[in-house]
Amino acid sequence: MLSTLKVFFGSHLYNLPSATKPVIGILTTNLKGKHDPYTQAIVNESRRENYLTDVFYPSDVSLSADSNGLYFTLRGIKYKKPPFDVVIPRIGSNYNSFEGTACLKQLELMGIPTINSSQAIINSENKWTTHQILAAHHIPQL
């Protein structure tokens, strides 16, 4: 029996098989991509902790679905189960955030944990929606 590696991301605890290195996918819509200093800091820290990382863009991905389920094609390789243990979205509110959140939603539906949900990203892109959500939960605002 394999032992498990307990990994915290945000407030969530994930148990990953310790026989393999955890794979962290970093979904970015930033045009600087791997050269973005914040993304690079995540990659460097992940590698220092002995995690594998893969920075990918929505343009690297093709999403599909049929009567047999969902599929995730990354750089030409089609997966029934994506090759990530967790995904860190680095999606800003820019011209291609729709593609990023659609990609993230597909990963969520395929059982891949994400640091921020696609819905949280969509909500945060609209100030009025964010205000409504905070007010509904009685969170003070200026």
Question: What report would you give on this structure?
Answer:
- The chain is of the alpha/beta class.
- It has a single domain (4-116), classed as 3-Layer(aba) Sandwich (Rossmann fold).
- The chain has 4 helices and 8 strands.
- The chain has a 3-stranded parallel β-sheet with strand order 4-3-8, with helices on both faces. Strands 5-6-7 form a 3-stranded antiparallel β-sheet, with helices on one face.
- Strand 1 (4-9) and strand 2 form a beta hairpin.
- Helix 2 (97-109) packs antiparallel against helix 3 (118-124).
- The longest helix has 13 residues, at 97-109.
- The model has no long low-confidence stretch (mean pLDDT 85).
For the biggest sheet, the summary is: 3 strands, parallel
Tell me, what's the shape?
globular
What name does CATH use for the topology?
Rossmann fold
How many domains comprise the coordinates?
A: 1
**What percentage of the residues does DSSP assign to strands (E)?**
25-35%
The low-confidence parts are none
Portion of residues within helices: 25-40%
β-strand number = 8
Question: Which CATH first-tier class would you pick?
Answer: Alpha Beta
- Number of continuous helical runs: 4
Order of helices and strands: EEEHEEEEEHHH
Q: Would you identify the CATH architecture?
A: 3-Layer(aba) Sandwich
User: Which structural category fits the helices and strands?
Assistant: alpha/beta
Rg for CA atoms: 16 Å
Distance between the termini: 53 Å
